[in-house]
Amino acid sequence: MRIDLHSHSTASDGTDTPAELVRNAAAAGLDVVGLTDHDTTRGYAEAIAALPEGLTLVTGAELSCRVDGISMHMLAYLFDPEESALLAERELVRDDRVPRAQGMVAKLNELGVPVTWDQVLRIAGDGSVGRPHVASALMELGVVPTVGDAFTEDWLADGGRAFVAKHETDPFEALRLIKAAGGVAVFAHPAASKRGRTVPESAIAELAAAGLDGIEVDHMDHDPDTRARLRGLAKELGLLPTGSSDYHGSRKTCVLGEYTTDPEVYGEITRRATGAFPVPGTGGA
Question: What are the backbone dihedrals phi and psi of residue 218, each rounded to the nearest 5 degrees, phi first?
């Protein structure tokens, strides 16, 4: 089985619609794909309706968290999307994205960059507006060559010249909310140092003791030595090691299935989940 548990659609900051994403996942030879848009479940219905036969969908979300001033992302899998407490927290994070992005546009204007709010909204479309949309605007204007190059201290990285903070959930609270909604929690790209400061291993150990299920080991932002170190840490802490592409369509260079999750790990994730179940494809529209 080929299992990719981290991807994004136009419901957040990907460039594939949810329907396109699942069709592309099947074309890439995947057996299982996880739809994990940022702080939203809006893509579920469209993805399920279009799900090709032979492809299974794992519903999820990537939750924005912050601990000790360090931004981190928590992948929540197979939770009940209607559970009220987790839904309220996702809406709180999502609602703060608009004033945050507007603040980044204002800072960029002060730096002499002629990005406009209308431009960012056009790029975001129906998705939850976020930093990648502002980064895409910078790329359109020729300020940076790629979206990734916008995530530096010169521009949009944490603490960068045009950075604006947003509401982010305490990860221990996120764990509590995910578990209460019947979900499984995996720390996304925990050692992606080129994105900014990373959470120390001591904090990962504390999260493991508080109920964290796994860490994303195999990821494009982890070099081979980092992956080996994280795999050892996962074993030491009793965490599930996952692998995923973090696919964003054409917004990033990663491709579906670039990194995958071991079938035994996937089986354990589905065994632990009680809020929702994987959806098998029956040949969608």
Answer: -90, 110
Long-range (24+ apart) CB contacts under 8 A made by 115-118 are 115/141
**What sign has the CA pseudo-torsion 223, 68, 170, 17?**
negative
Query: Are 84 and 193 in contact, with CB atoms under 8 Å apart?
Result: no
Q: What digits encode the pLDDT tens for the residues 91-101?
A: 888 888 889 99
Grouping H, G, I as helix, E, B as strand and the rest as coil, residue 119 is helix
CB 103 within 8 A of CB 49: no
Judged on CB neighbours under 10 Å (0-12, 13-18, 19+), 238 is: exposed
Q: Looking at the predicted structure, is the pLDDT value of residue 143 above 90?
A: yes
pTM: 0.85
Are the CB atoms for 145 and 71 separated by under 8 Å? no
pLDDT at 282: 80
Give the rounded distance of the alpha carbon of 85 from its chain centre.
20
Residues 6+ apart with CB under 8 A from 266: 1, 3, 5, 32
User: What distance in Å separates the CA atoms of residue 6 and residue 137, rounded to the nearest whole number?
Assistant: 24
What is the average pLDDT across 46-69?
95
CB 12 within 8 A of CB 33: no
Query: CA–CA separation, 169 vs 142, rounded Å?
Result: 34
Distance CA 80, CA 181 (A): 5
Contacts of 142 (CB under 8 A, 6+ apart): none
* Position 164, amino acid: V
Q: Average pLDDT, stretch 234-258? A: 94
Judged against a pLDDT cut of 90, whether residue 114 lies above it is answered with yes
